[in-house]
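Here we describe the complex-level prediction in full. Unlike the single-chain runs in Section 2.1, the two entities below were treated as one system.
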Amino acid sequence: MPDQLVFGMEVFLNGLMAGVLYALVALGFVLIYKASGIFNYAQGVMALFSALTLVGIMEGQVPFGHIINAVFGTEIHHFGWHVPAFAAILLTMGVMVLLAICVQKFVFRHLVGQEPIILFMATIGLAYFLEGVGDLMWGSEIKKLDVGLPQGINSAIDEATLGMFGYGFFIDNLDIVATLIATLLVITLVIFSQYTKQGRAMRAVADDHQAALSVGVSLNFVWVMVWSVAGFVALVAGIMWGTKSGVQFSLSLIALKALPVLMLGGFTSIPGAIVGGLIIGVGEKLFEFAVGPLVGGATENWFAYVLALVFLVFRPQGLFGEKIIERV
Amino acid sequence: MNDMSQDTYVTDDGRTIGGVVMEMKNITLRFGGVVAIKDISFDIRQGEIRAIIGPNGAGKSSMLNVISGFYNPQEGDVFYKGKKRPPMRPYKVAQQGIARTFQNIALFEGMSVLDNVMTGRLHQSNAGILSQALWKGRAEREEVANREAVEKIIDFLEIQSIRKTPVGRLPYGLKKRVELARALAAEPSILLLDEPMAGMNVEEKEDMSRFILDVNDEFGTTIALIEHDMGVVMDLSDRVVVMDYGKKIGDGTPDEVRNNQDVIDAYLGVAHD
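The structure predicted for the assembly as a whole is:
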């Protein structure tokens, strides 16, 4: 087999894995958008915040340590204990639910019935607020996150491909785990939204507030639930990205990578977010591999956005978006 | 409530009308300086078709919104099943068995007709979320029971052929019927219909009238409806409340109301002096 094809296959596989991570972030957007019509700019920051909180809890860091020390002249930074990863994840989830309740109670509850652009602005505010709170609570230095996920080259695949093609593929164990977890997450979410009462209530609220009220659905409850689920997805994304590249500010910028994914997949479709993520992941890696050397590289920075632009022209609702039905 | 109100009687066409399910007592509703409803009292009895009529702007829809919890009146009390009802959010009212339709139709446009009607049964299921996700035990039994009830209503309202159609594609008259189906799916103690015949042609109006009568007859559902078209209402209802400028100007059987001078004035437009 020619070398180029073998390399291409490796790039393709790595692209799939990267795509899964994009899809994870995009999922968070879709969930909130579907249920409340809010485009949640803060989704990326939520991932950052949840990862920061997770690290902080695991290391037994004192929240708001810097402020406490500055005000009282003390020198406390750590409680001196370490929380096991699993318990810390549960605790962090608790924090995300609390955040969901606060977001609903203090922000969006007061903005019911406002224009989408106003809701969008509110999420921008929320993003900066959360970023600041994250810094204040846990400090702004880069942190290492290790919840015990396997990392490094997968030797089984390396050896198998070495035997087959005479060239060992580099596939990161973490990417494989991420793929498995993302698959599980998506299956859970689809079952939740299609087959449970809460999921049906969620879809009802997404469609028409007044009608949802008239069949006995509490808007507040559904919105808190949706923000909690989005928080959970953010946490999963935060763990994956945080383990991969450290918990740092740039984590919140992955939200921008989710935008083209959403344009491809459609803002209202969970399967769309997955397929969109995969297409972007594979597309940008393959494009960089094939065309990158010809144009001086760095195509990964813009490829996704150009692809999204093409989609906007030919299929504005995305691959799986709800058909736009207009009756005159 | 006095003992008289608990008396049951049988109508000319053989339906049994029971005691009072809902009583509105001295309801006053204001929006800023505008008085939408002024000191109105009336009751709704078990199994009857109760109409609220009046010219445009009389406060009929406001009254329906008070009953369904979308508005909370500044003065007056609502008694439901003999108990005073505290100010309550609309979704709570719905959970207590008061279902409604809207004048301008509020359906889930992106969902199929079947899904829409199924949402009417949202608060009929109590299974845990895990049980629902795994489709086992209680959730399975509930879902099967819910589907059965819903299919029965769909058959009853003759919308079988559009079960899987997204509601957004349906014409106006059918949407109204789907909305009625969704409200019925909740098996309400009181069914509130906000101008069920608005914007319909004669044929559609006749269909809707027939469905309202059949629902009342077949399921024994208590129905309170709003209409400004007097003709339709008189044939349908057992008792009629007439409103004008936020006040009650008549209350009684269609015949009594028809011969009420205030009502005639309101409808024929006698100068108010």
